[in-house]
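User: Second chain of the day. Same drill as before.
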Amino acid sequence: MDDRIVVTGGSGMLGDSLVRRLAHSGYAVHSVDLRAPAEPVPGVGHTTGDIGDKALLTGLFSGATAVVHCASGLPSYAKGRLREISVGGTRNVFEAARAAGVPRVIHVSSAAVYGLPLEVPTPETHPRRPVDAYSQAKAEAEEIAEEFRGTGMCVSIPRPKTFLGPGRMGLFAMLFEWASDGRNFPVLGRGDVLSQMLAVEDLVEFILLLISASEEAADDTYNLGAADFGTLRAAFQSVLDAAGHGKRVVSLPVRPALPLLRLLERSHLSPVYRRLTHKLLIDSYVSIDKARDRLGFTPRFSNEDAILSSYHWWRRQRPAGVGRTSRDAWRQGALSLAKVFF
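Assistant: Same format as last time:
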């Protein structure tokens, strides 16, 4: 296959899965990331570099048939660093792609751009209503992508729900640790809100569809999420059951817990951010009809498939230490002390 694909953020959880799948499919692949890949893929090129370096990107993009922009800041980042990566870095990627003559860019966004949507299932036509620094940065990055789409560049914008799979940590590491240590796990309220997730394998397959799709179909914005999903309580309980200690999801009363979580966040003693606490209390799922109807996208994995895949990987690895990326466990702060009560 003559197509050459460049993946930004290629050492991250999504980027690594995508690079491997592209290479397996016969594409010539090159990744760029601040970190070297944990396990290099034979035949895949890698450059350790920053998407803030536009000259570097322009050289790497030369001759590419598509760029998949996976690099992004995370909710755990300081606001300035988050904007530097997600907004400034995205503009650099698109300007470099234009300078290098890349015909197609796939900008991996997030359903977080909807903020706290007023409509569920949420369609792609729902306005962007960011509510925190992370969703604001993702919304601004989308505006940049749409700006370049308006100049005639073919720009795909997938908006996935939270995606899970081997390599995923972040806040989920807290659930995995508590489950493996034989603790119950708390949830705000009854935990009966519907919450849609997405297996990283399904996200990767959709990106492959975008790479090979007609320009008319690819040049659009698509929601992505599991077709088979249920409540947060069911998803969390599946991990506790897999741990084998007979533990349960425990409801916390919302009225005292919510102000406490917000206080801990403002004091930098908890990684649970405002938008996440709202997601724990209201139904959160998107319509994937457009992806299905236009590109034939059919998710293979359920919420529970995705979260259990992450958990079984974590249990095999039981990573030590903490970090600030989706491949690392985030610091639990004061919440680590609460474990003794469960």
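The radius of gyration is 20 Å.

User: Great, on to the next one.
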